[in-house]
Design brief:
about 700 residues, alpha/beta, N-terminal domain of TfIIb, Rossmann fold, Dimethylsulfoxide Reductase, domain 2, 4 domains, seven-stranded mixed sheet, six-stranded mixed β-barrel, 28 strands, about 15% strand, binds iron/sulfur cluster, oxidoreductase activity, iron-sulfur
Length: about 700
């Protein structure tokens, strides 16, 4: 009998461990890994159906150039030559990579090294920009580094768990199950949910706060105000470790309960109940996710939460802290290697000359990026304006998932040269490629991912890659070599990881938080056997939490509280577009459904795209349950099924993000979302468009 392979689920940022057992016929059975500290054997519906998604019928098997089969040598040579010509003629900022939180850390590392250290541009951004860039910005402003201070156990040890902007029950189900189990075992534990919608997650809540869309910062400013007025500030902690309290308080005091009630739409008694719960329970975690991050003021919302934890010293100790949960399986790994346009590798700062020089020395780089590159929305805008001459998209589908998706599709089409690395044929983005590069998929590739609690887990291959599919790091290294660069002679993902660990060790010696010096020089055998471990990994061991010691990574070594002036969503409602359009996930589908649509079991939960609409709004528009409706915005429209429900508040609609033109010809909701971005984080406001709804 074949032994199971220990690997990690490829879907969400919980990062569950999986045991995969090949069946000898190209498939595999999948079970939860009882020894993995993220899930202890649990899997959600998506994870448990992984074995049903391994069919090869739609796989991209060979490189293609202009639609005809090509050899790898031809495809690599053409990609390298075209990038080289664009750089020579127009400079390094005329080319770009758009990558993905689905990539493994080793893929991400090579992509970032090639663009920032050898091409010499910051133009590498990732679909993680759409996921958690606001949390990254919030962390860096408050802590000096992008450090998640908490771990999953904190959610079980807390006396209060606040879930804000997070439908954890559907989007991070195993973490939700862990909280639900902890609450069942310890009924004194309280859960608060903060979300304009009543979701499956709200069903667990002792208190559900149905805030007005986008008003979270007002709520946390009110909380900070109450923390002070109730005498709950930890003066000793603040005095020793935190700057910025007076300025943050000056703004928070502008949010008495009456004003907070007006802006959030909550009853004063509910606001006071929330503040009382938060203040009286020292062990508390405030968890947030895309509901906060996908906002034109997402970074401020993150800092409004972090302010409350810093003011009370409730950070870095068991059962307490601010906790951002990533959407994708390896958004965190991308952050570690500098996969965002404004970051350098190993949590070093791209804008810091000493950091740039250190990385340049480490890599032996000929041309180091000297400034941040284009963030996702700006990157595709640059394509539309003709400033990007060569673009490489890896493992993501921006023609569907970017806001103003029709405009992004046109921008990709207008770019003179587009390479797309993909697992499957026929995606909206892949159909626009000049060069299509077949990529190895989950189960076929090997490397590491990092989950939301900083835990690094090995993804291991248990099936051969079909046709001529190659791992993404290998594709990148081949192009790097073909462009004439040294430093891309990697023979295996273990070699890439060793370099990544060595670079992080240098960053650790420079006082940065991301430090894998304990894994420096790791052998192939030890890399293969690497057990799940939270970073940092140093001689002193691993670390579950940060900041209980009050040591932060700012220039002063002190944390920063920020004054937060709440802002409404950028798109204003009007008579023509009176509804707030919210987008998000459903329980059983993932991203643009390239994997989850392969099994009918996962489509049984929700089979088609829909628009949740409140009964009063449906009445006003003459819409009956199950009608086909147009959701119309200035930027575009989608046609979906009406789901009339009071779980969505009056004045708002919710449409899932998954359906593409492969599955529903009029279901790409992001075509109807304006590309407003947070000026700090560059994250698009995917939850705050203005729209109207009409019967089709
Ligand atoms: Fe996979 Fe996330 Fe489900 Fe865990 S919770 S099995 S990581 S989708």
């Amino acid at each position: 009998m074949t032994c199971p392979t220990r690997t990690a689920c490829p879907y969400c940022g919980v990062g569950c461990g999986v045991l995969a057992t090949p069946d000898g016929k190209g498939g595999a059975t999948v079970a939860g890994d009882p020894d993995h500290p993220a899930n202890f054997g649990r899997l959600c519906s998506k994870g448990s159906a992984l074995g049903e998604t391994l069919a090869l019928d739609d796989r991209l098997l060979f490189p293609q150039i202009a639609g005809r089969r090509a050899s790898w040598d031809e495809a690599i040579a053409l990609t390298a030559a075209t990038f080289r010509e664009a750089i020579d003629a127009h400079g390094p900022d005329s080319v770009a990579f758009y990558v993905s939180g689905q990539l493994l850390t080793e893929d991400y590392y090579v992509a970032n090294k090639l663009m920032k250290g050898f091409i010499g541009s910051g133009n590498i951004d990732t679909n993680s920009r759409l996921c958690m860039a606001s949390a990254v910005a919030g962390h860096r402003r408050a802590f000096g580094t992008d450090t998640v201070p908490t771990c999953y156990e904190d959610l079980e040890q807390a006396d209060l768990v606040v879930l804000t902007g997070s439908n954890l029950a559907w989007c991070h189900p195993v973490l939700y199950q862990r909280i639900a189990a902890a609450k069942a075992a310890r009924p004194g534990m309280k859960v608060v949910t903060i979300d304009p919608r009543r979701t499956a997650t709200s069903d667990l809540a002792d208190l559900h706060l149905g805030v007005a869309p986008g008003s979270d910062a007002a709520l946390f400013n009110f909380l900070l105000h109450r923390i002070q007025s109730q005498g709950a500030i930890d003066a000793a902690y603040v005095l020793a470790h935190v700057d910025g309290l007076p300025a943050a308080m000056a703004e928070a005091r502008r949010w008495p309960v009456e004003r907070a009630a007006e802006v959030t739409g909550l009853a004063p008694r509910d606001l006071e109940a929330f503040a009382a719960l938060w203040i009286r329970r020292e062990k508390g975690v405030t968890l947030w996710s895309q509901g906060l991050n996908q906002s034109s003021s997402g970074a401020d919302k993150a800092n409004a939460i972090i302010n409350c934890h810093l003011a009370t010293g409730r950070i870095g100790r068991p059962g307490m802290g601010p906790f951002s949960i990533t959407g994708q399986p390896n958004a965190m790994g991308g952050r570690e290697v500098g996969g965002l346009a404004n970051m350098l590798a190993a949590h070093l700062d791209l804008e810091n000359p000493a950091h740039r020089a250190a990385v340049q020395g480490f890599w032996g780089s000929p041309a180091m990026a000297e400034r941040p590159g284009l963030k996702a929305v700006d990157l595709f805008e640059a394509c539309a304006e003709g400033r990007i001459k060569a673009l490489w998209i890896m493992s993501t589908n921006p023609a569907v998932s970017m806001p103003e998706a029709d405009r992004v599709r046109d921008a990709i089409r207008a770019t003179p040269f587009v390479a797309v690395s993909e697992v499957v044929r026929g995606t909206d983005t892949g159909d626009l490629a000049d060069v299509l590069l077949p990529a190895a998929a989950w189960g076929e590739k090997t490397g590491t991912v990092t989950n939301s609690e900083r835990r690094i887990t090995r993804q291991r291959a248990f099936l051969p890659a079909p046709g001529e599919a190659l791992a993404d790091w290998d594709q990148l290294a081949r192009v790097g070599r073909a462009m004439g660069f040294e430093g891309f002679d990697f023979a295996s993902p273990a070699e890439v990881f060793r370099e990544h660990a060595a670079l992080s060790a240098m960053a650790g010696r420079m006082g940065r938080d991301f430090d894998l010096s304990g894994l420096e020089g790791i052998s192939d055998a030890d890399y293969d056997a690497l057990a799940p471990v939270q970073w940092p990994v140093t001689e002193a061991g691993s670390r579950a939490r940060f900041f209980a010691d009050g040591k932060f990574h700012t220039e002063t070594g002190r944390a920063r509280m920020l004054p937060v002036a709440p802002r409404a969503p950028e798109s204003r409602l009007s008579a023509a577009f009176p509804l707030r359009l919210n987008t998000g996930r459903v329980r059983d589908h993932w991203h643009t459904m390239t994997r989850t649509a392969k099994t009918p079991r996962l489509s049984r939960h929700i089979a088609e795209p829909f628009a949740e609409i409140h009964p009063a709004d449906a009445d006003a528009a003459g819409i009956s349950p199950a009608d086909l409706v147009h959701v119309i915005a200035p930027e575009g429209r989608v046609t979906v099924r009406a789901l009339v429900t009071d779980r969505t508040p009056r004045g708002a609609i919710f449409v899932p993000m998954h359906w593409t033109s492969q599955w529903a010809s009029a279901g790409r909701v992001d075509a109807a979302v304006r590309a407003n971005v947070d000026p700090v984080s560059g994250q698009p406001e995917l939850k705050g468009a203005a729209a109207r709804i009409e019967r089709a």
